[in-house]
Write the structure tokens for this entry.
Amino acid sequence: MTGHGCFGHYLHRVARREPTPSCHECGAVDDTAQHTLEECRRWDPQRRTLVAEIGGDLSLSSVVFAMLSSERSWEAVVDFCEEVISQKEAPRRMREEAVNAHPLRRRRGGRRRREYAARLLALGGGG
Ligand SMILES: [Zn+2]
């Protein structure tokens, strides 16, 4: 609902943890929450199950309306989100671990920590 999470759009533009906003599943240029919910072919089977329960209008307002209208619809949306996000999360974690394991990345992280420690010391010494 906020668009925050395991979506290329968010990970690139906001969290700055991905080099592009594209979809790792289908190659679409902008992987938003709405792309994941409505468009991405990778999630067609999960989407069919969801649409069978709440209908074909997957706009945010319709999905929220469906969720609030019955417990079954709520569960259908939760099931879709849990299954899709868990399948998107696993490869993202592997990509991030591969990046974090890189020796240059580790050195940069160490420098940032040292700079942060230096700033804290400077603040403490100025009082
Ligand atoms: Zn996609």
Residues 8-120 form one domain.
